[in-house]
Amino acid sequence: MKKYLFTIALGLFSLFAFGQVQVGSLIKVHSVNTTAMNALTPAETGVLIYNTDDTSLYVYNGSAWEKHKGSGWGLTGNNIVATNFLGSTNNVPLVFKVNNFESGRIDLYQISTALGYQTTAGYKSVAIGSSISSADTGTESVSIGQTSLAKYQSVAVGSAANTTNNQSVAIGNIATAGFQATALGSNTTASANNSTAIGYNTTAAQANTVILGNGANVGIGTATPNNKLEITQGTTGNSGLRLTNLTSAAFLGTNSTGDVVSSLLTTKDLATGTSVNTATSPLVLTNSTGQIVGANDATFTVNNTAPLWNANQLQGKAISTTAPTDGQALVWDTTTSTWKPTNFGVFSVITVPGTTYTLSNADNGKILDFTNSSAITLTAPSTLPIGFQVSITQAGAGAITISGSGMTINNRWGATKTSGQWAKAGLEVRAAGSSVLSGDVQ
User: Which of these, 386, 427, 379, lies nearest to 401 by C-alpha position?
Assistant: First the structure.
């Protein structure tokens, strides 16, 4: 203002050219628009006029009209230096208004900050947004968003976000949280104490719970979960799930409420002699304190007279329906492709009527009777396994010549042919591609 007065004083001597001054009257600065102002050039140095186009004072500096800015903050900004600032130098709150409504306050005594139309903040709080009232915001709280509301030591972020109780967090459009609760997401509500609701339109109405969004699948270690919970540990054979309060090495089961618990096979309701009516009826064990699995105080015995009691296959291969007798064992029969009972240590006698025969793995441990009256050729291929043994009988008049196909036939005398009818020979594979021929051969 002092600069304005000083400038006005400098121009008083030239005002006669642009206006009139009367004794006892106010000084009137000549008002012109930009066009008229430029038409006055050249004017007397120090002449002051008011430009009606940009509502500013101009002083003629001897060569041009210079806009008078003064020391105030210009509507179009100022060219400032490092020592300039916008604010106050005392402890009175700094207040901003729009339409004469408080729309910003930085308060030293309340230790609070409020920004937004008709917005105020509570003690030690921050409120940013439109229409937030200090009456609705609690101490030490943060409210960000239109009409958001944060109670004592709470945080509300989002349009109409509302923490209806103390020490809670609500983040999202119309998110609502109860006492010490957390609501994250649009239209999310955590109404129960110590509850957490996460995800769009999710509600946590039970205390001490965490509820994830409607229909959400949760993935741990995977970005594409295909069930309500999918865990990927990343190591083959390891699920990544650990249940620490269950019995070590126990089976898992569920109780009547669906909880996962240790499940032990027990002897309750299983009396001595318990049986079922048919071979297909199940035998059910129920809970008791007497453990069968991992225990030393119980014996579990199953007796069944049905010939096919759930054991009609072995390694996926059929078992013969022939009932076994004392001392027999199951052996594999390639002819019928079944396991069948056979007397242990007794060889099968196989009649060979033709004049040529090639041994196979199925001949291991058998007696081959060759009955043809003409000369017979028996071939031992290289595919016979180590340990293969077969007994050869010349039951007819035709002599049997034993030859190898990729198989060396070794004999003490270099013999390879049976000596005559009822001559016996044995062939034994001792190494890959190498066998020994023994018996009545020449």
Answer: 379
